[in-house]
Amino acid sequence: MCKKERIFWHSHLLQSNPLGHEVTLLSAVMLNVGVMLGAGIYSVPGVVLNSVGSIGLLFVFWLLAPLFALCGLMVYSEYTSMFPKRSGGEVVYLEQAYPRPRFFVPVTFAVTSVLLSCVLSVHIE
To answer: Where's it mainly located (predicted)?
Structure first.
């Protein structure tokens, strides 16, 4: 790939929006809340209580958890502000960070995420 094509490819990543959607602040907040809460809010407290053995410590963890969720929200808000016209989650950032070999890192990330989410969901039950 010559220098001119490489510059075009990088500018194409920043400009185009193949899915036709934009990520707004409200949608970023709702996505993060949905990922953090999900169905785990019903299944995880018993597991945590069995692990820590104390209701007081369970409440401490429940008070600390929103701080970690807020950190995740801040990271994704920063990513969204870097590419405001693109949607696609982590794939957008991975394509920009690792352009060669094309699609290797995003596909590897997607496969790993799917495999680990299946393993974790089975383990929690």
So the answer is: membrane
The answer to whether the bond into 45 is cis (omega within 30° of 0) is no
pLDDT at 124: 53
- Rounded to 5 degrees, φ, ψ at 53 are 80, 5
pTM for the full model? 0.52
Q: Which of 64, 2, 72, 85 is nearest to 31 (CA)?
A: 72
DSSP code of residue 102: T
Closest residue by Cα to residue 123 from 44, 16, 52: 44
Residue 95 CB neighbours (<10 A)? 19
